[in-house]
Each structure stands twice: as C-alpha cells, then as structure tokens.
C-alpha cells in the first residue's frame, strides 16, 4: 500500500492496492483462529468482539485526530 502512494499512474496504484488487499483479506480468518487459540472459552467471545470493535473504529478515530491537527 505504501508503494501505491508513490506510483505516477492510476493503473499502477490499482495494481498495488489489489496486491495489498489480498494480504489484508487474509487477516480476518487469521485473527479469528489465533484469538480462538489464545483466549479461554469463557473469554473468547468478549475478547474477539473487543478486537473487532477496535479494528472497525480505529480508522475513523485516526481520521478525526488527523482533522484536528490539520489546522
């Protein structure tokens, strides 16, 4: 994704974003399976819900913080 930001034409940007998206797409099954392994049975649902809540709200929160510092 970082490389895509430096590409001069949109076709290269699209290609690098597609490649990066493949890696990001595999992240969710990995988090579920790893989280299921490390958390105890009674904690599993709550902890996975917390992980996904942080993941979903992180981007809007970062945008909000960035808009405050933009001046």
Automatic annotation (TrEMBL):
GO terms for molecular function: transmembrane transporter activity. The chain crosses the membrane at residues 6-28, 49-67. Keywords: Membrane, Transmembrane, Transmembrane helix. InterPro entries: MFS_trans_sf, Sugar_transporter_CS. It is a multi-pass membrane protein. The keyword Membrane applies. It comes from the Archaea. One of its GO terms (cellular component) is membrane. It is found in: Membrane. The keyword Ribonucleoprotein does not apply. Coiled coil: none annotated. Its main location: membrane. Gene3D superfamilies: MFS general substrate transporter like domains (1.20.1250.20). This is Major facilitator superfamily (MFS) profile domain-containing protein.
């Amino acid at each position: 994704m970082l490389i895509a930001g430096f590409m001069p034409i949109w076709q290269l940007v699209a290609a690098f974003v597609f490649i990066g998206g493949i890696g990001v797409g595999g992240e969710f099954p990995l988090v579920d399976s790893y989280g299921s392994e490390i958390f105890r049975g009674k904690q599993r649902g709550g902890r996975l819900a917390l992980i996904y809540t942080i993941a979903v709200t992180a981007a809007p929160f970062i945008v909000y913080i960035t808009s405050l510092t933009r001046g």
